[in-house]
Write a structure and sequence with these properties.
Length: 136
């Protein structure tokens, strides 16, 4: 897709530090390196984000993720990894071509901070919301 930076990387028009490539997927180091070894796994076909993908295209993408993640773990000696996918601006998406972040973790105190703020459970509301999602 014209004007998509990841399509340009896939086409070789913009250089990248590739760590894995096959006919469906490319993985390369994120230019920002939130932690050392921070890698992006992208489908070669352009999709705005995961919310636009179907079962086949998303399966092809995610089928590669565990192996690439293990390669990154092995090469970096990381102790763990966050695997993250942002969808739409409100969720932090800045490049609108589907990508999965592999962020190796070396300590809980590095440059990646993820916070899930827990709330007191409202069980009737949970039942209602689950029903609504199930029906959607
Ligand atoms: P998002 O915020 O959309 O989930 O993540 C986009 C990521 O793409 C960011 O972490 C950013 O550093 C990375 N990125 C943006 N432009 C480039 C680029 O030209 N090359 C590489 N390797 N990464 C990029
Ligand atoms: Zn693209």
């Amino acid at each position: 897709m014209a004007d998509c930076i990841f399509c340009k990387i896939i086409a070789g028009e913009i250089p990248s530090s590739k760590v894995y490539e096959d006919d469906k997927v490319l993985a390369f180091l994120d230019i920002s390196q939130v932690t050392p070894g921070h890698t992006l796994v992208v489908p070669k076909e352009h999709f705005r984000n995961l919310l636009e993908m179907d079962a086949d295209s998303s399966s092809q993408l995610f089928a590669r993720v565990p192996d690439i993640a293990r390669k990154v773990m092995k090469a970096t000696g990381a102790l763990g990894m966050n695997i993250i996918n942002n969808n739409e601006e409100v969720a932090g998406q800045t490049v609108f071509h589907t990508h999965v972040h592999l962020a190796p973790r070396y300590s809980g105190d590095d440059d990646l901070q993820l916070t899930f703020t827990a709330h007191e459970p409202d069980f009737p509301a949970l039942v209602q919301l689950a029903e609504k999602i199930a029906q959607a």
